[in-house]
UniProtKB/TrEMBL annotation, chains A, B:
Residues 287-310 are annotated as: Disordered. It is found in: Cell envelope. Belongs to the DyP-type peroxidase family. SUPFAM superfamilies: Dimeric alpha+beta barrel (SSF54909). The keyword Lyase applies. Involved in the recovery of exogenous heme iron. Extracts iron from heme while preserving the protoporphyrin ring intact. It comes from Streptomyces aureus. Its cofactor is heme b. PANTHER family: DEFERROCHELATASE, DEFERROCHELATASE/PEROXIDASE. It catalyses: heme b + 2 H(+) = protoporphyrin IX + Fe(2+). Binds 1 heme b (iron(II)-protoporphyrin IX) group non-covalently per subunit. This is Deferrochelatase. Residues 221-402 form the Dyp-type peroxidase C-terminal domain. The gene is efeB. Keywords: Heme, Iron, Lyase, Metal-binding, Oxidoreductase, Peroxidase, Signal.
Length: 417, 417
């Protein structure tokens, strides 16, 4: 996943970071502790360690797009959905989005929240924290904004293989949190929950993770809990049509979604005990790629184009007709494209020995009907992988464009109509 | 937490690490992917990133003590307890400990498990992975080794404030897994579960986390989910009596526990909504230390000795009589000492908005009756913190000394009697 324009590169020096914080009026006392990433008090014997780029890296809150879409994947993530409380409407929603935006801006800059801060992230740098906000289908009727509801938010079709828990699906409001430190992420999650106050109630919440930066020499495409390389065919920001496929154009409709994107969120449980029983060859056939290095079964390396027509000595297709990688190829789906930016999840192993683990699949596209939906329709009918996964919850959210200085996310929707 | 003798410092070069792997007979093919931390195939455009010390750092499996006791805390942890399966006894237990030790040695060195490997950690370095193995009270009757059961494993006393879930407490066998990468940790967890095979069944399993290395300039004492600095008063390996307090002496009893330690494991739920409602001053009074920098309320810095007798202008003790830090002071507990090496946990926020979060408290001592028990007895009677926490599960495990080359953990118990 390449840099987004929001991102400050890892080359940022700690001095510069502190300078930025100082410029925003943050007190950096000699005693330490006033800032989120302040140094330990100097007479502590443990004060020698320094903040690495992992801690110092930050992503900008303000920008054309919201952060957390093209930002590099972080090692820890939280998803949380809220429903507006009974009696809360457009006014309360606008106030909440204003609070959330202010919190996101401050935390992503490594600032504290002052007296209301729980101190869980104290001493830590922003650690590439991102907060991303979206609106679900039900948000618009709750706020009297039905006329502004994009048709792209029409409910996803039912898929044959779905086993959806409605209580863990959708929601009026959705927040995605990611950071390279678990306490920084948890701190942000609790701040988001506190900001909700009386205006909104938690509908569902999920935790996820990815590789830690530096743990692998191959970080750009991650492995999932099946051991597969995931994300090889993601559109790249350098692609000519990347913006068109992922973001609603500035002139798009509805106008308040300019530079926004649509997120499809699926909690996909992996039936790991069944999967792990397959031979390596059988696993490769399910995917159509070699698990070892992600190369197509027709040869080459991870980034080599698969030869979908190639047959073996036995006359059979080398990449089986129901291989996952064949079915998800954009050229097999009318050019459908989305950026997949998932987290793995693992909610423990039960007394029965079965892990509750899999993928918090999150994909981003300018139009779900040209991204997730056609691909999932094909997977639903004939994906060899479907025997080993189960879609357990689903969400679809309109994620507005980024907030400019002094603005809050969703302001164009909540104040313009 | 200082280095253990098992630890290879972060200065280890990647070349040296690869060299070590090569020496153990691991194939490092030009195509990449054969080793757990092999480079990506060279024609991948994503291959540029290099393994940092986070990924390359490793802890030695073989040593005087098992790893994971004095090793630096890792950012991700799993605890898993097993009961021996019906019909499984000493022989099956010995074979299982042999399998687990072999797996731990290989994974901690960054090797793969060959054809049975799930590939989840593929491309990643060992990332400071540790696996630590212990035996619970019930293990000894199941294996006909009652006479070798240490009195130190006698069940912990009931505490007034306990709310223990027996199904998530104790167990015949216990494994602690830690790593600085979540997929490396998950990979090891699944390998441990696979090794259990027909010999043992999962009793309970929990996930935890700590700060990521580099996320903070103050890593030696961690913050917990209450925002408190935790671990300030931990015994340090440089202390003259450290070994005596934490490890069973080489001449200790029973002989098979030479250089071993006892782990007390408590899942301590934090009532964060109640806690977060307190003012900063009220929180400081509960703990007896300033949340900001961990300094005692009587002044100084985190490492300053608290003045337990000091009174304020109002004649009251500055550090309240029921302050957590007062009650847990070793000099208030007959010198009781233990090394606390916990993980935080967060198993999600429920529909009621309440987080299931807190501390996987793990402490290490040569004798629980001179470590955890006297301290918890005092906390049980008068700790101001007890209104904000709830002990939900409990375990006590005998953790044998480290395995030498060619040995497995627990061999002295399982083969000598």
């Amino acid at each position: 996943m390449a840099d987004s324009e929001n991102r400050i590169d890892s080359g940022i020096s700690r001095r510069r970071l502190l300078g930025t914080a100082g410029a925003t009026g943050l007190a950096l006392g000699a005693v330490g502790g006033a800032a989120g990433y302040a140094t330990a008090s100097s007479n502590s014997p443990d004060a020698a360690a320094s903040l690495t780029s992992l801690g110092a890296d930050r992503v900008m809150f303000h920008g054309k797009h919201q952060p957390g879409i093209t930002s590099p994947m972080q090692s820890r993530g939280h998803l949380i959905a809220f429903d507006l409380a009974p009696g809360a409407g457009r006014k309360e929603a606008a106030a909440l989005m204003r609070r959330w935006s202010a919190t996101a801006r401050r935390l992503m800059a490594g600032e504290t929240l002052g007296d209301s801060d729980t101190d869980v992230a104290r001493d830590a740098g922003p650690s590439s924290l991102t907060l991303t906000f979206g609106f679900g289908h039900s948000f618009f009727s709750r706020t009297g904004l039905e006329k502004q509801r994009p048709t792209a938010l029409d409910p996803l079709p039912d898929f044959f293989s779905d086993h959806l828990d409605k209580a863990r699906s959708n929601g009026d409001l959705w927040v995605q949190i990611g950071a390279n430190d678990a306490l920084v992420a948890f701190h942000a999650l609790r701040a988001v929950q506190r900001d909700a106050g009386e205006a909104a109630r938690v509908r569902w919440q999920m935790n996820g993770f990815n590789r830690s930066p530096g743990a692998t020499s191959h970080p750009m495409t991650a492995r999932n809990l099946m051991g597969q390389i995931d994300g090889t065919n993601n559109p790249k920001p350098a692609d000519a049509d990347f913006d068109k496929r992922i973001f609603v154009p500035a002139s798009g409709a509805p106008a308040w979604m300019a530079d926004g994107s649509y997120a499809v969120v699926r909690r996909i449980r992996m039936l790991l005990d069944d999967w792990d029983k397959l031979s390596g060859k059988a696993q490769d056939d399910v995917i159509g790629r070699k698990k070892s290095d992600g190369a197509p079964l027709t040869g080459g390396a991870e980034t080599t184009e698969p030869d979908l027509e190639k047959t073996g000595a036995d006359g059979k297709l080398v990449i089986p007709i129901n291989a996952h990688a064949r079915i998800t190829r954009p050229d097999q789906n009318g050019g459908a494209a989305m950026v997949r930016r998932p987290f793995s999840y693992h909610d423990g192993i039960g007394h029965d020995g079965v892990p509750d683990a899999g993928l918090l699949f999150i994909c981003w596209q300018a139009d779900p009907l040209r991204g997730f939906v056609p691909v999932q329709r094909k997977l639903d009918r004939g994906d060899a992988l479907s025997d080993f996964i189960r879609h357990e919850s689903s969400g679809l959210f309109a994620v507005p464009g980024g907030a400019g200085e002094g603005e809050y996310v969703g302001q164009a929707l909540l104040e313009a109509y």
